[in-house]
Write the structure tokens for this entry.
Amino acid sequence: MSEGCRNSTTRCPRGFAKRSHRFTPRCASPKLAWAIGCLAVLATPQTLRAEPERPPNIVMIVADDQGWTDFGFMGHKVIQTPHLDRLASESAVFPNGYVPTSLCRASLATLMTGMFAHQHKICCNDPPDGVDRTQMHPFIQQAPALPRLLGKHRGYRSLQTGKFWEGHFSNAGFTDGMTMKGRHGDDGLVIGRKTMQPVYDFITERPDQPFFVWYAPMLPHEPHDPPARLLEKYATPDRNLKLAKYFAMCEWFDETCGELLKWLDEHQLRENTFVVFVVDNGWIQETGEVRTTRGNFAPKSKLSPYDGGLRTPVMLRWPGHTQPGRHTDLVSTIDLVPTMLAASGIDKPPEMPGLSLLDVAAGKGRLDRDAVFGEIFVHTAVDIDKPALNLTHRWVRAGDWKLISFEADPQRVELFNVSTDPFEERNQAPEQPDRVKTLKNRINDWWDALH
């Protein structure tokens, strides 16, 4: 055997590195050297330790104000999303995903903490008049935010881009970021719309460490100002211009996702990168001349208890750990932080009520739940310290049935079969009092258990 075997770093099947061994020319053969090395490792556990497996990189893609139907892979017949369609073909897809709260800031906080809004207290976009926004920042600082946990337990670097309402990016434990203090995200909002370079620079800066990237561009969120080439594609004579602009924005967002995913592939990062896709809340474009809400969205979408505001596809892609396919399980965005923690080898904190989706995504059975729950709050808070004072609705989906309760009128409820009536047009509550009672009790039990 050549003298070169003195510095061998060949790995034995048990995963032990043999750099600390020093083989000599008296080794009779490479096979014998390998065997001696493995036996030596087993005989001296205090000096030769197994190298910890590097956890996966994580890229979280968050669409902003996009309807759950508004993707090619979700069946939209006009909007083209070829890059996300491809991601769907490579992912475990959960078309029955939900956000608990259909409002930007509260939903994003749940995506970072794995908790309901009434737990983390970030339930409204704005504080009451006269209250400074900085008085709300301690909520995310005190929460078990994903970037903070990844860094503390597994040494992740983490990058915040795009939407972030909680002041400086470090408030959520990000090591790097673009947002310093703005309401939506100030400097972070250029991501996707103007550049992708900060993401690429961050990833290449320290290739020796696992990374977490929060890619939450303000897309297809207003302003709906798509590139002219895309608007021209959708602006047909028979289509409302507002709708055409929204459609074009959805494709623009898809293009940025495609650029990011292509870059990961070109830099050999696909195999050990966990890609998570979700929408922060839904959107139905209002096309009438008179606005019926506080913005350009239809009443049964953003800020509402209806699926147009709450429902989102969820996609998980981690080669070798997830399998392509669709799963009908009811999932919630409270499940995403536990899922990413599980992928990283970290136990979720006890205050997180969600479940890991990894086993289901790997094709190992169904999720152990039959219902998901949520809560809707006012846009501008009445009281930042008491979430219940800001509550407008609570809701549950159990199986095919969805019940909505109205806080202003405890006797008022709406019941829909969202399998046969996905746009919730026929309220069946008057016809099914027993089902209403059962589901209302479930809402109350869920609410009471977390208070």
